Automatic annotation (TrEMBL):
Keyword flag Iron-sulfur: no
Domain Methyltransferase: 57-150
GO MF annotation terms: methyltransferase activity
Gene3D superfamilies: Vaccinia Virus protein VP39
Keyword Transferase: yes
Entry superkingdom: Bacteria
Protein's organism: Streptomyces antimicrobicus
Cross-referenced PANTHER family: METHYLTRANSFERASE (PTHR43464), UBIQUINONE BIOSYNTHESIS O-METHYLTRANSFERASE, MITOCHONDRIAL (PTHR43464:SF19)
Keywords linked to the UniProt accession: Methyltransferase, S-adenosyl-L-methionine, Transferase
Region (Disordered): 1-21, 200-222
Protein name according to UniProt: Methyltransferase domain-containing protein
Lineage: Bacteria, Bacillati, Actinomycetota, Actinomycetes, Kitasatosporales
UniProt biased composition (Basic and acidic residues): 1-15
GO biological process: methylation
Length: 222
């Protein structure tokens, strides 16, 4: 079903100067051997630690740190990203960590195609892009991929701290309440576990500017 929703919108423009989002992200990843820290996102660790391992889908998995952390904890993970460069790197990190057999990597422009299957955890950590990625629609497809009893975790950048320049004025960083509203979840089918904004941690200092991040964690009723 998610696949059909996405087929209507096959092509997405990349940010200025790039033909597509894939080109932009491949170029971004090629800028250095590793653009992220290699550590899992703090929000993922915090919110997933207490969940029983099952099937997980990591949307915009980048260099694979979250996927590797999940696999180490016994999850069977599908990691997906638009960037072939990132995915190759992520597969290397999974192999180094000895968890390659518990992660499969799939390349998707999530605005155009979506992994099949249903998952006990769907995680979208900092799935932001300077192109015209249809984030709200992707997150609705993410919710549709959550199995009964499963969890959708969306972590995102929020506002810039007062007195600091917003380094990405072209991007709208929604509040967790906006993310929740955009998901259009039927109230009786889902339980909201976390819907909160919090100051960005030091570990995430490579993120755009001082400010706030937010977390939305919802569980599909079983
Ligand atoms: C800000 S990075 C976050 C990476 C990782 N989740 C993390 O938290 O470190 C956004 C990621 O989303 C990926 N991405 C951007 N647009 C995408 C799209 N349309 N489909 C799939 N992945 C996309 C990028 O390649 C990049 O790896």
């Amino acid at each position: 079903m998610a696949q059909q929703q996405h087929d209507q919108h096959q092509h997405h423009e990349g940010p200025e100067g790039y033909g597509s989002d894939a080109e932009f992200w491949d170029a971004r990843y090629r800028q250095s051997d590793r653009i992220w820290s290699g550590n899992p996102n703090g929000v993922l660790v915090r919110e997933v630690e207490g969940l029983p391992a099952g099937r997980a889908l990591d949307l915009g998995c980048g260099e694979g740190a979250d996927a590797v952390w999940l696999a180490r904890r016994g999850w069977q993970v599908t990691g997906t990203d638009i960037s072939a460069v990132a995915l190759e790197r992520a597969a290397g990190h999974a192999a180094e960590a000895g968890v390659a057999d518990r992660i499969s990597f799939e390349r998707h422009d999530l605005g155009a195609s979506f992994p099949t299957g249903e998952y006990d955890l769907v995680s979208a950590c900092f799935l932001h892009s300077p192109g015209d990625m249809p984030r709200e629609r992707i997150l609705r497809a993410a919710a549709a991929a959550v199995a009964p009893g499963g969890v959708l975790l969306v972590a995102g950048h929020g506002g810039t701290a007062p007195g600091h320049e917003n380094p990405h004025p072209e991007l709208h960083f929604p509040t967790p309440q906006e993310v929740l509203a955009d998901l259009e979840l039927p109230e009786d089918g889902w339980e909201v576990l976390v819907c909160a904004e919090h100051p960005r941690t030091e570990a995430e200092a490579s993120r755009p500017g001082p400010g706030f991040d937010n977390t939305l964690k919802v569980r599909r009723r079983g």
